[in-house]
Design goal:
268 residues; single chain; alpha/beta; Rossmann fold; 15% strand; 40% helix
Length: 268
Amino acid sequence: MLIKNIRFLLIIVILVSFNLNAEIIEVNFVYIGHEEHPALLGIKQGIDESNLQGQFLNQKYNLEIISENKIQKHNFTKYIAILTTVKSNELKSLAKELTNIPIFNLTDESNELRVNCITNILHITPSNKMKADALKQWQTKIPDSKANPQSWHYSFKKFAARDLNKRFKKNYKTNMDDYSWAGWAAVKMTSDTVARTKIISAKNMLNYLKTKLSFDGQKGSDMNFRVTGQLRQLILLVEDNKVIAEAPIRGIAKPPTLESLGILNCSK
């Protein structure tokens, strides 16, 4: 164990020494929404973790917070991504004005947003249809189940989820929920991409996230975005504050088609 620790410390020293004279890359995020929203706590967790990693890669991650009533007068050109808890109309308006910046939808579950296939909106939160399909799959096995489909739960322990929940609870004295996980995931998939590819252009980041992303998100499987902009992911079935199953349910779920998703205007 001592030898392993010494080796690890030597690697860190080498990395730090190598990067001492390198230029620091600053990466800027902006959050639009209420400061009391739990998604913002997840965003802050993601920023902190990204900066911890960034110390060894000469990368610094910054977060700016603005309210919805300041959107029209704000200059968004310096950001690599926009993180939002705004509703559908505001999301669509933002996307129309800022076509080359990834806009992460952290809260709005409306199916209509996905059907429209807006090219620069990336939906971290699952749609209503995704959740309904997950529950339907589970009820095929357990017809009377009252499970609630969720994207995250504080009792989730698999795939290093327990560690993420512990870190979040320690920092913010509250449990990580669907929204805070979504905020964390949006930041981490972006910062991990910067660390891996050195992409710092919003336009290039948008293209990479839409076409090449492979992100675990502490859910145990590689996640990426559908043509709709929806993040493929496990849905947790929660009953009595415990995770009782994960969808897709093996042997029951069928791969979705564009038709089954209600999509008419998206190219394959």
